[in-house]
Input
Amino acid sequence: MGKYVFKLPDVGEGTAEAEIVAWHVKIGETVLEDQNMVDVMTDKATVEMTSPVSGKVIALHGEPGSMAAVGSALVELEVEGLGNVKANGGAVPKATEASKPVAPKVEAKPAPVKVEAKPVAHEATKPAFATRPEGDKPLASPAVRQRAHDRGIELQFVSGSGPAGRITHDDLDNYIASGGSAGTRGGSPYAQREGVDEVKVIGLRRKIAESMQNAKRRIPHFAYVEEIDMTQLESLRAHLNKTKRADQPKLNVLPFLMRALVKVLPQYPQINARFDDEAGVVHRHHAVHIGIATQTANGLIVPVVKHAEARDLWDSALEVTRVSTAARENKAGKDELSGSTITITSLGTLGGVATTPVINYPEVAIIGPNAIIERPVVQGGAIVIRKMMNLSSSFDHRVVDGYDAAEFIQKIKALLEHPATLFME
Output
C-alpha cells in the first residue's frame, strides 16, 4: 500500500490561500476517484475539491473556517500501489506513522469527527424523554420541581438517571438540550429561556462580513430616497407579460430599472465607476456591468449582468435569471461574480418603505427599488390611487456630489414614470 497526499491546487489567478468551508469525507472512509472531498472558497466562489485517486482517508488537515495555503496538504489517502510520496527522505516517518492503526491525535483534528461522535454517545446512554404510566408520579427534589415549573417543563416527560429513576438537574439540562421545549405541554408561555448558541462565522458569511465592514469603513455613504409613480410602468409590464412569446421570460421591475440606468449613466460617468482609493484613481467605465444582489442559502452574493447597455428588456431579464440562478445553485464562475460597475439591490416582495443600501466596494453607487404600494396621491387637485415605489440609493460622497446624485435619481424617476421614453433615442 502507498500514501497519496492531496494538496490544495491553485484555485484562481493570484490566489495564495483558500478557506476550508466544509468536509465531505472523514478519517477511515473510503473515497472513489472524482468524489468530492472538501469545499474551499476564495473571492466568494466556492470550489469543490475532488479526489484524483481512490483510497482510504488517513488524515485531514484543517478545520472548517481555517485557511489553507496553495500547495499545502489537505487530505492524505492510503492507496493501492506507491502513491505520490517517495519512500526516501522526510516522507517516510509520516507514512509509517499514518499507517499505524492507532493515530488518535490525527483523527481528532477535523472538527466534524469530534462534533459527530459526542452527541450520539450521549443520547444513546442517557435518553432525554420518558413516558410514564398514568398516575406514576416522577421522583424529583423540590429544587428540581421548582426549576422545571419555572421553565414550563412537565417532569412526566423527563427521564431520570438518579436512584429509583429520580430526576436530577442534569436530567433537566439533558431534556432541554435534546429538544424538550419549555412552555409546551401546559407549561407557562412566560418561562425564562437560557443558553447561548455559538456560531462560528466562516465561509461566505465571513466574506460578506469582511466586505460590508470594508465598505462602511472606507466609504462615506450618502443616501438618497425618491418617490416614483409606477402606475404607467406597471400597466406596460402587465401588458408585456400578457402578450409575450412562450420563449420570453416574465418581466419584473429590474429590467426596466436596468434600461433606465444604461440611458442615464453616460451623462454621469462618475457614477458608473470603481474607486481605487489606495491609488487615488477613479476608473470610469463606458460599459455598464450591473451587479444583481442575490440572496442565497449561503448568504448574499452579487452576480453580474455584463454589458447591460447592449441588452433589451427580454435579454436583461433572461440574464438576470441566469446569473442569479447560478449564484443560488453555487455554480457561478469567478467571471460572473466580479467586474460590476454599479449594483442593484432589491428585497423583492419584502421591499419595505425605504432602505439605506451598502455600496458594493469598490463601486461608488448602489440602487435599491422598494415595494410598489397602492396609495392615495394628489393629482390636479384630486385624490387618486396610484402605484407608488420608493427608490433608495447610496453614493460614495468622495466621488459623487449630492447634487449630481439627486439629479441622477430624478432622471431615473422621469424615465420610469414615462416608460415610453425608455425606448426612445
Summary: The chain has ten helices and 18 strands.
